[in-house]
Specification:
Layout lengths: L6 H5 L2 H7 L5 H17 L1 H6 L2 H8 L5 H23 L14 H11 L4 H13 L5 H11 L8 H14 L6 H19 L3 H17 L19 H14 L5 H11 L5 H17 L4 H12 L4 H17 L8 H6 L7 H13 L7 H10 L6 H17 L5 H13 L4 H16 L1 H8 L15 H8 L5 H5 L14 H7 L6 H17 L16 H17 L8 H6 L36 H11 L1
Helix pairs in contact: 3-6, 5-6, 6-8, 7-8, 8-10, 9-10, 10-11, 12-13, 12-25, 13-15, 14-15, 14-16, 15-16, 15-17, 16-17, 17-19, 19-21, 20-21, 21-22, 21-23, 21-24, 22-23, 23-24, 28-29
C-alpha cells in the first residue's frame, strides 16, 4: 500500500501500519519500518502527527537486527528528506531528524555483526554520520568496525573503510593509525581481483583513498599491474594508481612495466603509459634520468604515436629540469617529419624555441612551421609565433627575416583572435622596447610539479565521507549530479521574468549590433583623425544616432536594410588594422599602421546579417 502513490489509499494506510509496527513477527515489523519512510515521502505531516517516526526511533532498540537495520534505513531516508526540504526554504521539523547519540551508537554496534549485507551497509552509513565525543570513542568505533573488512561483500568493505577513514581523524595514537592503515590494505587488494565492473568501482575509491593517505597500499604496487584481458577503463585506472604508488624503491619495476605497455595495440592506453613515464620523472627526481632513457628507447621504435607522445612528455621533463638532458634535443629534432599531432608539434616547437641558442639550425627548423603557418592548428601557431620571437631575441642577426614573416602571417592571414592578439603584442614590444620584450618573453618560469590530489582538500574530505557511493566513483560531490544540480537550467528558468517583451529585446539586440559595427577596433594602432571620436565616445554617438529609427520601426527585420543604409560601415573607426610590411631590421619595425578595407555592397551586408536571424 505504501508503494501506491494515491491520496485516497494513504487515508486507509495509517491503521494497519500502526498495528504492523507492533506486530510480534520481526519480518512484519521490518517491512512496516520501510513503509513509514514511504508514507513520509507522500505526506510528511501524517507520518509525524501519528507518531510513526517516533516509533521508528524506538525500533532502533529492537531485539531483531533486521528490524534495527530497516529502522535505521527508514530514519536516514526521512532525515535526508527533511534536510533537503530545509534547503528549499521549508522549516524543518525536529521530529524528523535522526540524531545518533551514545545510546543509539551502542545499539547500532551491537546489531552490526548480526545483520544482513544491506543492513550492515545501512548501519555503517549511519555510523559515518556520528560525531564522536572524544578520541576514546573514535578508537572504540574503529575497533568494532574493523572486523567488517573480512566480509565477502564489497559494498560492506567500502562502507567499513568509510567509517574508519572518518573516525580515524580523531585518533592521535600513531601506532593505532598505522595498525588501522595496515588492516585496510588486504580487503582493498581483494576487491581488485573481482569482476571488471566491481574492480573499476574499487579502483576509483582506492584512487580517492590514496590522495588522502598514500601509505595505504605502498607495498602492493604489483597488484595493480595490468593484465592482458583487463578492459581499457580498468587499465587506465590502474595506471593512475601505479603512478601514485611510485617511489624510489619500486620505480624500476614500474618503468619496465610501463615500457611493456607501450608496445600494446591500444593506442590510447599506449599514450597514457608513455605519459605515466613522464609523470614518474616529474614526481621522483632521482628517477628522471632512467625515465629519459626509457623514452629514448621508445622513440627509437619509430612508432608514430609513441614518438609523438614521447615528445610531449619530454617537453614536460624539460620544464621540470630546464638545464638537464639537452643531449636529447637532436634526437627529438630528428623525428620532426614523423609528427602530425598538433600537441606533439607544439611541444617540439616549444623545445626548439626554449633552446634556440643551443641549436645551430633552429631557424631552419622553425622556418618549416612558418611556411605552413596558415595551415597549422591554433596551438601550433601560438607556439611557432612565440618560438620565433624567442629565436629573434637570442639570435637577432640570423632571425630578422623569419620574425617579420611570422608576424605578418599571424596578423594578416590568421583567423584566430588569440594568435592575432599575441602577434600584435609581440610586434609592439619589439618595435618600441626590445628590452621589455626580452624580459617578458624570456622570463624565468618556475619548474612544474604534479598535484597530489585531483580535487581541493575540502572536496576530498567530503568525498571520503561518500565512499561506496556514486560521488566517490565520479570524484564529484553528489549535489553536482543529483537533484537540482543535475539540471542546472531549472532554477534559471524559474528566475526568468515572464513579462519580457520579445520585440523590444530584438530591437535592443539590433541596436547593439549596429553600434558594434561602428565602434572603434581595439587593434587599430594607426593614427586616426583628430576630429573623429574614438573609443567610448564613438560608441555613444552611434547609439544616440541609431536609437530613434530603431525604436520607431514596427518590425525591425523588415526595414533592416534602411538602418544600414544610413550607416557608414566602412569608416575609419570600424576598419580592421592592416600591418605595413617594413624592412626586416628591428629598428625599422615601426608600429603597425591601419588601412581601410574596401566597402562591401550594402545589400550583401544586410543579407549576411539577416542570415543570422
Amino acid at each position: 500500500m505504501g508503494c501506491l502513490r494515491a491520496e485516497k489509499i494513504i487515508d486507509y494506510l495509517c491503521d494497519p501500519l500502526s498495528k504492523c509496527l507492533k506486530d510480534e513477527n520481526p519480518y512484519v515489523r521490518k517491512t512496516a519500518a520501510v513503509c513509514v519512510a514511504k508514507l513520509y515521502d507522500l505526506k510528511p505531516e501524517l507520518a509525524l502527527d501519528n507518531g510513526f517516526v517516533d516509533q521508528l526511533q524506538e525500533m532502533v532498540a529492537d531485539s531483531n537486527p533486521m528490524v534495527v537495520a530497516n529502522a535505521v534505513t527508514a530514519l536516514t531516508d526521512i532525515h535526508d528528506m527533511a534536510t533537503n526540504s530545509a534547503k528549499e526554504g521549508t522549516a524543518p521539523d525536529s521530529r524528523a531528524e535522526f540524531i545518533i547519540n551514545a545510546a543509539v551508537l551502542t545499539k547500532l554496534l551491537i546489531a552490526l555483526n548480526e545483520c544482513s549485507e544491506w543492513g550492515r551497509v545501512a548501519i555503517l552509513s549511519a555510523l559515518s554520520r556520528y560525531t564522536a565525543q572524544d578520541e576514546k570513542e573514535s578508537e572504540h568505533i574503529c575497533e568494532r568496525v574493523v572486523p567488517q573488512f573480512q566480509h565477502a561483500n564489497g559494498s560492506v568493505v567500502l562502507a567499513a573503510v568509510k567509517v574508519i577513514m572518518i573516525h580515524m581523524r580523531n585518533v592521535q595514537r600513531e601506532d593505532l593509525v598505522k595498525q588501522l592503515v595496515r588492516k585496510m590494505a588486504p580487503p582493498l587488494v581483494t576487491l581488485v581481483s573481482s569482476e571488471p565492473e566491481v574492480q573499476w568501482v574499487a579502483l576509483r575509491n582506492i584512487n580517492l583513498l590514496l590522495q588522502k593517505r598514500s601509505d595505504i597500499l605502498q607495498n602492493e604496487m604489483r597488484v595493480f599491474f595490468c593484465k592482458y584481458n583487463d578492459p581499457s577503463y580498468v587499465k587506465i585506472e590502474k595506471l593512475d594508481i601505479m603512478v601514485r604508488l611510485a617511489g624510489e624503491k619500486n620505480v624500476d619495476a614500474l618503468l619496465s612495466e610501463l615500457k611493456e605497455y607501450a608496445s600494446e595495440v591500444d593506442v590510447d592506453f599506449v599514450k597514457r603509459a608513455v605519459k605515466a613515464i613522464g609523470q614518474c620523472a616529474i614526481r621522483i627526481d632521482s628517477s628522471a634520468e632512467r625515465c629519459v632513457h626509457v623514452l629514448l628507447d621508445l622513440i627509437s621504435t619509430r612508432v608514430s604515436y609513441v614518438v609523438q607522445e614521447a615528445v610531449v612528455v619530454m617537453k614536460d621533463i624539460f620544464r621540470k629540469y630546464p638545464d638537464s638532458y639537452e643531449g636529447v634535443i637532436p634526437i627529438l629534432c630528428a623525428s620532426l617529419d614523423s609528427l602530425d599531432d598538433p600537441e606533439a608539434k607544439a611541444s617540439l616547437i616549444w623545445i626548439i624555441g626554449e633552446y634556440a641558442d643551443k641549436i645551430d639550425n633552429a631557424d631552419e627548423l622553425l622556418a618549416i612551421f612558418v611556411q605552413s603557418f596558415s595551415e597549422e592548428a591554433y596551438q601550433v601557431q601560438l607556439q611557432a609565433l612565440t618560438a620565433v620571437v624567442k629565436l629573434f631575441l637570442k639570435k637577432p642577426d640570423s632571425a630578422q627575416g623569419i620574425v617579420q614573416q611570422v608576424l605578418e602571417k599571424a596578423t594578416k592571414d590568421c583567423d584566430s583572435p588569440d594568435v592575432r592578439d599575441r602577434a600584435y603584442i609581440y610586434w609592439r614590444l619589439l618595435s618600441t622596447d626590445p628590452a621589455a620584450a626580452k624580459a617578458v618573453v624570456l622570463a624565468m618560469r618556475p619548474p612544474i610539479s604534479l598535484p597530489r590530489t585531483t580535487v581541493s582538500p575540502a572536496v576530498l574530505e567530503e568525498l571520503l565521507g561518500e565512499i561506496g557511493s556514486l560521488a566517490s566513483v565520479y570524484h564529484k560531490p553528489a549535489e553536482t549530479f543529483i537533484g537540482r544540480g543535475r539540471i542546472g537550467a531549472e532554477e534559471t528558468m524559474q528566475k526568468r521574468p515572464t513579462d519580457v517583451d520579445d520585440d523590444s529585446s530584438r530591437q535592443k539586440a539590433l541596436q547593439t549590433l549596429v553600434a558594434g559595427q561602428q565602434s572603434e577596433n581595439l587593434l587599430d594602432f594607426g593614427d586616426d583623425s583628430a576630429d573623429a571620436p574614438t573609443g567610448l565616445a564613438a560608441t555613444t554617438n552611434t547609439l544616440s544616432a541609431t536609437a530613434t529609427p530603431t525604436t520607431t520601426l514596427s518590425n525591425p527585420l523588415d526595414d533592416l536594410v534602411s538602418i544600414f543604409g544610413t550607416t557608414n560601415l566602412g569608416g575609419a573607426a570600424g576598419g580592421m588594422p592592416m600591418l605595413s610590411t617594413g624592412p626586416p631590421a628591428l629598428a625599422s619595425f615601426g608600429a603597425p599602421s591601419a588601412q581601410q578595407q574596401p566597402k562591401q555592397p550594402l545589400a550583401s551586408q544586410s543579407e549576411d546579417l539577416l542570415g543570422l536571424f
